[in-house]
Amino acid sequence: MIRTPRTRTRVERDPVRVRLTAGAAALLTVAAGAGLRAVSGGDVAKYGGDALYTLLILALVVLVAPRATPWKAAAVALAVSWGVEFLQLTGLPATLSRQSTAARLVLGSTFNAPDLLWYAVGAAAGWLVVAGTRGAPAPVTASPSAAPGEPSGSGSRPRAGSSGSAGAGTTYGG
Q: How many CB atoms lie within 10 A of CB 151?
């Protein structure tokens, strides 16, 4: 019996697939934020929203730069989140928030130090998800160079001590 060589490779980072996934993740994150606000209030909604805000930024970073490493995407998302929070110390976001709902949603209005921690939680969670999906091994598949019934490619040579025929006792590498 002839054994078909099998390969195991990492999931390829097809930019189109990564962008589609990141876009879907961004939409899901916005929906999760809206849902969180609808079903809860107080600190749960506020700090959960902070973490989701950073997750949304991370998804947008991956959407724009699909080959960015998970660490870099999370670091950029965290830096943007913290930058917006520290910008609130200037009063500019508060002024803009009074004029526009979109500005209020994106920039907030007042500085709150605990938000910095929850942004980090969101960045860490996003990093774990992106790193986990990119590092997953692909399923074992048949080598594309191996035709059914014909040994070919690496691993098709008989091992030492075998007769070299396709009869009993012959083992092909794999």
A: 19
Taking the CA atoms of residue 91, residue 96, residue 99 and residue 100 in that order, the dihedral angle to the nearest 10 degrees is: -140
Instruction: Find the farthest-apart pair of alpha carbons in the chain and give their distance in angstroms, rounded.
Output: 84
Verdict on whether the full-model pTM lies above 0.85: no
CA distance 52 to 74: 13
**pLDDT tens readout for residues 131-160:** 998 865 555 555 555 555 555 555 555 555
- The type of residue at 84 is V
Cβ–Cβ under 8 Å, residues 71 and 58: no
Question: CB–CB of 96/110 below 8 Å?
Answer: no
Give the C-alpha distances (Å, rounded to integers) separating 81 from 74, 78, 86, 118.
Answer: 10, 5, 9, 10
- Provide φ and ψ at 61, rounded to 5°: -60, -45
DSSP strand E in the chain: where? 6-7, 141-142
Q: What DSSP letter does each residue of 124-137 carry, written as one string?
A: HHHHHHHHHHHSPB
Q: Which residues contact 171 (CB under 8 A, 6 or more apart)?
A: 3, 158, 159, 162
